Amino acid sequence: MSEKAKYLARMRRIEGQARGIHRMIDEDTYCIDILTQISAMTSALENLALGLLDDHLKHCVSHAINSGGDDAQEKIREASAAIQRLVKS
């Protein structure tokens, strides 16, 4: 299974979680149960983001560093900015 296929499968599960939360709200489910599902969905999104970041570092950034030049510094800046956004969220 390619990484893309794994990411798409994860997104399908996350979409299912979002639909489930929508249904729970619509059915007036107990608030704590909804919050528990939101926490699970947030964790799933964070894990997806970390996987994408890891792939970016292993492939895009690594390739740019091996190639050298200004592109390498730009890829490092991009990765640093992405990490900052993830840490803040």
Can you characterise this structure?
This protein is mainly α and 89 residues long. Helices cover 90% and strands 0% of the residues. It is built from three helices and no strands. The chain has helices at 3-26, 31-67, 70-88. The radius of gyration is 17 Å and the shape is elongated. The mean pLDDT is 93.
Number of E-state strands: 0
- Beta fraction: under 5%
- SSE order: HHH
Q: Which outline best applies?
A: elongated
Poorly predicted regions: none
* Main sheet properties: none
Q: How many helices?
A: 3
Structural class, from helix and strand content? mainly alpha
How do the strands and helices of this protein lay out in sequence?
Elements: H1 3-26, H2 31-67, H3 70-88
Summarize this structure as a short list of keywords or feature phrases.
89 residues; mainly alpha; 90% helix
Short summary of the structure?
By secondary structure, the protein is mainly alpha-helical.
